[in-house]
Design goal:
The protein has a domain at 1-45. It contains 6 helices and 3 strands; from the N terminus they run H-H-H-E-H-E-E-H-H. It has helices at 3-17, 20-37, 41-44, 59-73, 96-127, 145-156; strands at 50-56, 79-81, 88-94.
Length: 171
């Protein structure tokens, strides 16, 4: 697929699924560029499926990629593989539009998940007080009130379990 058609398909997806000004701007840009590049709406509607390969690093990314492909296609037709020292890969047969949608969602949600995972870890550590005591000359780390509220909301949904300590009594 050439770069121009790829751009048009991205704009088409944004025009169909975007909101507010984003959607309007995408629609206008799509119309303008279709004329400039000489594409018709029918040419962008191709339903031909091609083999698509996506790279992922972790088990979480694999699960996320599977969910995204499932959401986009409503099918579970994905195979995962790795050859030798190559990076982990997922393969599925998708239309060009579906491929672009999967790439867009995977990139977005992968970054968002990494950010949220850091927040979850921080909330977990604070809820269970898994940190050392501050030294006399140390100040606690400053966080914004918004971040503090976010961590408190996350922590409130976590389990209140505490470790059971066994103390051996000597006789």
């Amino acid at each position: 697929m050439d770069k121009r058609k790829g751009l048009l398909l991205k704009l088409k997806t944004l025009a169909e699924r975007g909101e507010g000004g984003e959607k309007v701007n995408a629609e206008e840009a799509l119309k303008r560029l279709m004329v400039r590049y000489g594409y018709t709406a029918e040419e962008l509607e191709s339903e031909e499926k091609i083999e698509c390969t996506f790279r992922y690093r972790t088990k979480r990314e694999r699960l996320l990629l599977f969910q995204i492909i499932y959401k986009v296609t409503n099918e579970r037709d994905v195979s995962f593989f790795k050859r030798g020292n190559e990076q982990n890969k997922a393969r599925s047969f998708l239309t060009i539009e579906q491929q672009m949608e999967v790439e867009l969602f995977f990139d977005f949600y992968k970054r968002l998940y990494a950010k949220e995972e850091k927040s979850l870890f921080s909330a977990f550590v604070h809820k269970h007080m898994i940190f050392r005591e501050l030294m006399d000359d140390e100040e606690p780390m400053e966080i914004s009130s918004e971040e503090r509220r976010k961590l408190a909301r996350i922590a409130s949904g976590l389990d209140d379990a505490t470790p059971y300590r066994q103390i051996e009594v000597s006789k």
